[in-house]
Each structure stands twice: as C-alpha cells, then as structure tokens.
Design a protein that fits this description.
Residues 63-239 form the NodB homology domain. Pfam families: Polysacc_deac_1. It comes from Streptomyces antibioticus. This is Polysaccharide deacetylase. It is a single chain. With 239 residues, the chain is an alpha/beta fold. It is 34% helix and 15% strand. The chain has one domain (12-231): TIM Barrel (Alpha-Beta Barrel), CATH 3.20.20. It has helices at residues 32-44, 52-57, 75-86, 118-126, 146-164, 180-188, 219-232, and strands at 12-15, 17-18, 29-30, 48-50, 64-71, 92-95, 130-133, 170-172, 193-195, 211-212. Strands 1, 4, 5, 6, 7 and 10 form a 6-stranded parallel sheet that branches. Strands 2-3 form a two-stranded parallel sheet. The protein has a two-stranded parallel sheet with strand order 8-9. Helix 4 (118-126) links the parallel strand 6 (92-95) and strand 7. Helix 1 runs parallel beside helix 3 (75-86) and helix 5 (146-164) runs parallel beside helix 6 (180-188). The structure holds zinc ion. Zinc ion binds at residues 70-71, 134, 138, 174.
C-alpha cells in the first residue's frame, strides 16, 4: 500500500519514554517491543525514521519520517537506542540541559522517570542521534517572562553546544505550547527549526507539527494518523 504524501508536509512522530508502560497516566511511554513493531510497520511501507535535521535537509522527504523523543528520559539509551539501531533509524532527542541527571519533576502525576545525565546525552549523540533542546527546565514558554524566555531558548542552546562540542539546530516547545513571541525567541536564539504539536497558523520551520505515537498505535491507527497528517496539515512554508 503506497501512501502519497505532500513532501512539504514532513511527517514527524512524537515519542517520549520507551520502557515499562504499566503506570503511565500521561500516556507518554511505549514499550521497546511496540516501538519495534511501529518501525517495522514504517519499513514495510518503504519509510525510514530519521532525525528532524536529516528529514528537513533531504531533497526528497517522501520516504522519510522524523522520529522525535522528548524530555531526554534515561530509558532512551536502554529502551529506544537498541531498537533504532536494529532498524537503522536515527532520531532527534530533545533534552533539558537544566535537568540532566534529574527527573520529570514538572509532571505532578505519575511515576518519577529519571532523565539522562550529560554522559548519557553524549552517548546518544555518539550513536548518531541528533540532540536538540527542549529548553532548560521544561517551562511553558507562552507563560515565561522575557528573561526566562531568553534563558530557556538561547542559554539552553549554548549549554548544550558546550556539552556536545557541536552546534545545536533543533528546539522543541515544552508541552507543545507556542505563540508568536516564543517562535521569535527560538529563531533569535539561532535554531534552524523547532518542533511543536499543533501549531495552527504558526505552522512553519520554527513550529513544525508532530503526531503523537503511543502504545495503542498499532497498524490501523498508525495508517490513519499517517494519512490524516498529510491531509489535515497545511504545507510548511519556507521548507
Ligand atoms: Zn516535554
């Protein structure tokens, strides 16, 4: 079954944690087995998962799907990386340089999940994973004052670049919340692109829409999400 997709509507899947999902009130976790089946589903359709930077740089995006993992959970290295390697996929991992080695303290409910340390982030980068910024501390940028907004965007990029020894191209809005002021701050901080969830009229290289992919997304739901994404989203101008 071939799926015609408008190349200007890049398909970007949004994951968070990869591990045990028995206690998961925010539905942010998939098991490694489910991720494996979802990547197998993509491969059967001639699609390959890549980092967002690779997706955006590709001359022809029709056979590529961006894979993103938000928050930088420690289980990325143990749960996601072996599966990605097996499928010869890359991905983008959006980490919080102000919380490395900490946990998801911003989520009031649900289990504490440890976040990668600086060494863990470097290990993922060494395996070909693109590292992007998710801000310093997981702050809603639409509610941040000017100083916080600048720190969460520009400072997080500087800290991450220092940690990795490379440039940082991508940003990801915490909670997916975005407004014109946040987009301007992210652009001013020097990022090439930024991921949102449902950016509406802000849709563009600095507010890319993404599709949540979860533990319940088996073949049929994945197919519908894939199709609906191409039909519902407006082409991203400027790509
Ligand atoms: Zn997040």
């Amino acid at each position: 079954m071939s799926v015609p997709v408008d190349a200007r509507v890049p398909w970007v899947a949004m994951y968070h944690s990869v591990g045990d999902c028995s206690d998961d009130p925010y539905r942010i976790t998939v098991t490694p087995e489910r991720l494996d089946r979802q990547l197998t589903w993509l491969a059967r359709r001639g699609l390959r998962g890549v980092s967002v930077a690779e997706l955006l740089a590709a001359p022809d995006r029709r056979r590529l799907v961006g894979l993103t993992f938000d928050d930088g959970y420690a289980d990325f290295v143990t749960g996601a990386l072996p599966v990605l390697r097996e499928h010869r996929c890359t991905a983008t991992l959006f980490v919080l340089p102000g919380r490395l080695g900490g946990d998801n303290a911003w989520d009031p409910l649900g289990p504490r999940k440890p976040l990668l340390t600086a060494d863990g982030v470097r290990r993922a980068a060494a395996e070909g994973i693109e590292i992007g910024s998710h801000g310093l501390t997981h702050t809603d940028l639409t509610r941040a004052d000017d100083l916080t907004l600048k720190a969460e965007t520009a400072e997080s990029r500087t800290v991450l670049a220092g940690l990795l020894g490379t440039d940082v191209a991508g940003f990801c809005y915490p909670y997916g919340t975005v407004d014109a002021r946040a987009v301007a701050a992210v652009r001013d901080a020097g990022y090439d692109y930024a991921c949102a969830i449902d950016p509406g009229p802000l849709n563009g290289p600095h507010a890319l829409p993404r599709v949540h992919v979860g533990q319940n997304d088996r073949a049929v739901r994945l197919f519908l999400k894939y199709r609906l994404h191409g039909l519902r989203r407006r082409p991203v101008e400027g790509l």
